[in-house]
Design brief:
single chain; 71 residues; two-stranded antiparallel ribbon; 42% helix; elongated
């Protein structure tokens, strides 16, 4: 019997926050943050999105693409 990972998927929250907004809230320079993390925006969870929900969604996506045959 062979055991291993045969499928994987990710679930990235659809909402985004711009680095400029993060910098504004923290009263810092947006460009220095953007240069440090090498991105201009970041994905963020919605209020009803939790780690468990995102994990379940990614798992469902991985299972739905499988084409396994018994045996």
């Amino acid at each position: 019997m062979t055991v291993g990972i045969i499928s994987y998927r990710v679930c990235i929250p659809r909402y985004r926050i711009k680095v400029s907004e993060i910098a504004r809230v923290w009263n810092t320079d947006a460009q220095s943050i953007a240069d440090g993390i090498r991105m201009q925006e970041k994905s963020v969870q919605d209020m009803d999105d939790g780690t468990a929900m995102i994990t379940v969604e990614a798992t469902r996506n991985a299972v739905n693409i499988l084409t396994l045959s018994p045996g």
